[in-house]
Amino acid sequence: MTDLLYSETEDDLRAAVRSLLADRADAQTLLGRIETGAPYVPGLWKSLAGDMGAAGLLVPEKLGGQGASHREAAVVLEELGRAVTPAPYLTSAVVATETLLALDTEGEPVAELLAGLASGRTVAVLALPLSTAPGTERGLATAPREHGVDIGSGAPETREGGGSGRPGTVTGVADALAADVFLVPRADGLYAVPAGDAVVVPQTPLDLTRPLAAVTTDGAVGTLLADAETAGAAIRRGLLSGAGLLASEQLGLAEWCLEETVRHTRQRYQFNRPVGSFQALKHRMAQLWLEIVNARAAARAAADALATGSPEAPLTVAVAQAYCSKVAVHAAEECVQLHGGIGMTWEHPAHLALKRAKSDQVALGSAGRHQDAIAALVDLPAPA
Amino acid sequence: MTDAAELRTRTQRLLAEHPPATTAREDFLRARFDAGLAWVHYPVGLGGLDAPRSLQAVVDAELAAAGAPDNDPRRIGIGLGMAAPTLLAYGSDEVKQRFLKPLWVGEEVWCQLFSEPGAGSDLAALATRAVRDGDTWVVNGQKVWTSSAHVARWAILIARTDPDLPKHRGITYFVCDMTDPGVEVRPLRQITGEAEFNEVFLTDVRIPDAHRLGEAGDGWRVAQTTLMNERVSIGGARIPREGGMIGPVAKTWRERPDLRTHDLHRRLLDLWVDSEVARLTGERLRQQLVAGQPGPEGSAMKLGFARLNQAISGLEVELLGDEGLLYGDWTMRRPELVDFTGRDAGYRYLRSKGNSIEGGTTEVLLNIVAERVLGLPPEPRNDKDVAWKDLAR
Question: What is the pTM of this model?
Answer without folding.
Answer: 0.91
